[in-house]
Amino acid sequence: MSAIWHEMRQALSHLRRSPGFAFVATGILGLGLGATLYMFTVVKGYMLTPLPYPDAGRIMHVARANPRHGIDMMGVPTRDYREWQRVQQSFAALATYYTNSVILADGDFPERVQGAFVTPSAFDVVQTEALIGRTLKPSDAAPGAPWVVVLGFDVWQNRYNGDPAILGQTARVTGVPMTVVGVMPAGFRFPSNQQAWVPLKLELSNFAGGEGRLLAVSGRLKDGVTLEQARDEFANIAAGLAVQYPDNRNVTILIQPFQHAYIGADWRTTVLTMFGAVLFVLLIACSNVANLILARTAARQKDIALRAALGASRWRIVAHVLTESLVLAAGGALIAYFLADLGLELTQRMYAAADIEEPFWVVFDIDWQALLVAALAAVAAGVIAGLPPALRAARTDVNEYLKEGAKGSGPSASRLARTLVTGEIALSCVLLVCAGLMIRTVANFDARPLGVKNTNLLMGRVQLPLAHYPDEAAWYRFYEEVIRRLQAHPDVIDATAAYSYPGMNSWVAAYRKRGMEAPATGQFPLTQYAAVMDNYAEILGVELLRGRWFDARDAANSEPVAIVDARFAAKVFPGEDPIGRQVALAPGRAGHPSEWRTVVGVTEAIFLDWIDDVERPAVLVPLEQKPYMLLTVAVHTRGEPLAFAETLRETVRSVDRDIAVFWMRTYDNWIWTGNFDSRAVSILFGVFAVIAVVLAAAGIYGVLAFSVSQRTREIGVRRALGAVDRRILNMVLRQGLLQLGIGLGVGLLCAVGFARLLSSALYGVTAFDPVTLVVVALVLCAVAMVASLVPALRAMRVNPMEALRHE
């Protein structure tokens, strides 16, 4: 133990005498460790944080899938859930639910809260009791039972000031008076971020969804039952349902850990790929510090040789160099904590600005687990950075280095340094390629011609309660009145309402034209789909190419009509006039198109969705013929759109005081946040790549500078014998270019393979993108040339007489 403390004191003493070296080395390791700590915290938040429920590993998500139609996960109809519940033996508790915004309107103002309509068994699945009062019980979901609600802790605190007398009070929830029967503990959410729970009455066809709504299902496995056993049982259940219900043919049942339903496999792969990329940054940092320590030990070879001559064993010399490296890593770990904390804070601000809300268990906090991993990473980094120079120092030839005039680190040290730098270039190349592909993806998204010319709009979501608006006619009358009042406001140029807008989001619908037979797979082609008001095109600036736009002729009881975009016309009616032709639509991915509509117009190509299915064409239908409860209102204002937000809210309340407007933002912001995940990934890869390139450039410079200093006598002799500047310059640059060539070749090959892991996140580019590869190669060549030029110019300034006299 005393030997360890002695080596630590020695290391600290040496580092105090070399503050520049200590500052640079700890800073480099701090960058690498900081990026690693940051990314591990993100991975932990998405993939390693358990659900805060008792024995949460046994909670599963159960859904249907249709592999033949390419549908990975879809909801469950009530009839299937009832059959599952009747025959299954794998789950101790099985619950079904759907999530929906609810409006609490029992006070002075309505407030939107994320809610869930759940069967009472949901609380058995999560095994969590209420903080005060009770959770839902089976009798609450019985037909004719009085409506009740369980509130989340934050809602109770913020809206009701934590009033303990809340139990028994009546709250208007989405227009329905409900009795508050319980409040859940602080931090409780289910299934993701919901904070109000209403009993799901499966027998009802109104308010709660009823038979027509597809539901989500979760369950708690019985003790002793494995996931594979549950999957086998439900495979048999699916086979039985396929016989009983023809539309269940080709439908399988997917059972997976609960979190996987909310954090998809593609995103998990992307996050792990970024973590792998950040380990590359750490390896580059370790290589750089290893080169610094290698140069430092080379300058101290006589001192090390003297220690060996006085009896120090090889392992003691290794420990001496490694201790210094570990001390540097400890300093780097402190820097890493502050860098990672800053990065996480900026990330959370970016999520908040984009109004992105992750599932409640995804928390980006540096806790004791993250700190433990950071400490282990620091130790590993210290060993990786210090071990090669330590082993090199332990092989010191004592007699050679104690001779008068002995100098230099030997060719093996130079080879090791060059190998490390070559590895840095290869790893930097991988990071630059990934960053380039993601940047091109975001650029391709932003460059898409959405088909609109006006984005100076304020957007706001509005959802109607079925209790007050029981049918489609009532839905349309409400929105028609809201738009009429908005249009009458002096600060409004125009206003409209629709399912969706280009670049925001869209529904999909299966379609067919007259004479089209059902495909062999049974899956009809899909199109983007939205119902819109008749002033939609005028407000957005959508260009009509042929035919007409919707007007008063397209009332609810009129002939069903549709407008298609140019891509749909070219794909479905190639070489034909689409005006007057008919298409059948069926909203959803697996429906049988049977709602025939006559095409009355063709617009330019419009892209209704932001990421999913961006290549699908678009079909628009009149909102009066296909109303919906949840729409997005768009207001074209005379001034700054966001300044009109409160007026929009009050206008909606003037029609119905129980209705709240939520997700209010500008249209530009909607479009920007549409591909937020790709933007975030491109930013992170960009940061990692910049760090890697800077470190690689520093490594090239350091190795060449050290090489020039070691070859001062050789360069002096060459110049004394008549070598011109160009020869000296070429001699130094050749070494740097050799490392660049090898590193670039290996890096480009590895980059193409590594980038394939990002394939699901790419748009408009492939993992093998020639433009990106060429640009990365040029960037690294330029960086390497600049990094090599400074030592080369220094070599050209070597004075032959001074170099020989020095020797």
What features would you describe in this structure?
- With 807 residues, the chain is an alpha+beta fold.
- Strand 3 (91-104) and strand 4 form a beta hairpin.
- Helices cover 49% and strands 17% of the residues.
- The protein is globular and about 100 Å long.
- Strands 1, 2, 3, 4, 5, 6, 7, 8, 9, 10 and 11 form an eleven-stranded mixed beta sheet that branches. A six-stranded mixed β-barrel has the order 14-15-20-17-19-18. A four-stranded antiparallel beta sheet has the order 13-21-12-22.
- Helix 7 (265-299) packs antiparallel against helix 12, helix 12 (410-447) packs antiparallel against helix 21 and helix 20 runs antiparallel to helix 21 (770-796).
Return the structural class.
alpha+beta
Envelope shape = globular
Tell me the major beta sheet.
Answer: 11 strands, mixed
How much helix, percentage-wise, in residues?
Answer: 40-55%
Beta-strand content estimate: 15-25%
Which residue ranges are poorly predicted, with pLDDT under 50 across at least 5 consecutive positions?
A: 205-211, 404-410
Count every helix, treating DSSP H or I runs of 4 or more residues as helices. 22
Mean pLDDT over the full residue set: 83
Distance between the termini: 43 Å
C-alpha Rg (nearest Å) = 33 Å
Q: Please give the number of β-strands.
A: 22
